[in-house]
Amino acid sequence: MSTDSAAAVPAHDRVRWGRTEIAFEVRYTRRKTLAITVHPDLRVCVVAPLGADAAAIRAKVHKRAPWIRDQWRELELYLPKQPPRAYVNGETHRYLGRQYRLRAEQGVEDSVKCLRGYLRVTTRLEPTPALVQRRLEAWYRNRAEEVLRERLAACHARAAREGIALPTLHIKRMHKRWGSCSPQGTITLNLELMKAPKEGIDYVIMHELCHLREAHHGPRFWALLARLLPGFEQQRERLNRIAAQ
């Protein structure tokens, strides 16, 4: 097998770690050591030296299974790819987990109202898609300042029992993640969370609050999260399922 063909066509294999099956692809290159990478789409890729034994590769993947699991769990907080919106009448938009039809019209004042299954956007100028997008995004941001701070207070009331201090909150649009936590104790939440149900918002907030106590996704982190938010797995699954729609 030549170097070029080995690198171009990856081999596929899998190992079982407890009840978890880990599928992975292997690329062979002129390197001396083996490297394992977990990609944002949760693919596991192995780069191995030319001639590396398949059984040895499987053994290495099995040994790194706890690390792979932790990478999967961390990447699950990444924002799924979302279909683009055209900001035209009849299009659906989400707010706190529910779908609303967009209805844009010209009127005497600029306003956005959420009622009776519609997001009604009124603009003094002609409601072009670009203008409707700006108005709607500004409305989401205003609502986020109230709702996300309210949910942070509710979640922290539980986290405080574990001695976790109330963090500083930043809200901004993020392209890859639902939330993040800085070493200085600041939590940043994605504006897109306003499209998720409150249970999903609570999952993201509680996840980041737990990082104030446990920086890494080790067993103590997941045990803490399970104490503070029993059944978090279901909330995480629903969050990502809705966000991708």
Which descriptors apply to this entry?
26% strand; Zincin-like
Short description:
The protein is α/β, with parallel strands linked by helices and 245 residues long.
Descriptive account of the structure:
The protein has 245 residues and is an alpha/beta fold. The chain folds into 2 domains: 3-75, no CATH class; 92-243, Metalloproteases ("zincins"), catalytic domain (Zincin-like). It is built from 7 helices and 11 strands. It has helices spanning 3-8, 54-63, 65-75, 129-159, 198-211, 219-228, 232-243; strands at residues 11-17, 20-29, 35-38, 44-49, 92-95, 98-106, 111-115, 118-123, 168-172, 179-181, 186-190. A hairpin with a 2-residue loop joins β1 and β2. α4 crosses α5 (198-211), α5 crosses α6 (219-228) and α5 packs across α7 (232-243). Mean pLDDT is 87; it is low at 1-8.
Basic shape: globular
- What is the number of helices? 7
CATH architecture of the largest domain: 2-Layer Sandwich
- Number of individual domains: 2
The number of distinct β-strands equals: 11
Order of helices and strands: HEEEEHHEEEEHEEEHHH
Low-pLDDT residue spans: 1-8
Largest sheet: 4 strands, mixed
Distance linking N and C termini = 44 Å
Mean pLDDT: 87
SSE map:
Elements (H helix, E strand, L loop, with lengths): L2 H6 L2 E7 L2 E10 L5 E4 L5 E6 L4 H10 L1 H11 L16 E4 L2 E9 L4 E5 L2 E6 L5 H31 L8 E5 L6 E3 L4 E5 L7 H14 L7 H10 L3 H12 L2
Parallel strand pairs: 2-4, 6-8, 9-11
Antiparallel strand pairs: 1-2, 3-4, 5-6, 7-8, 10-11
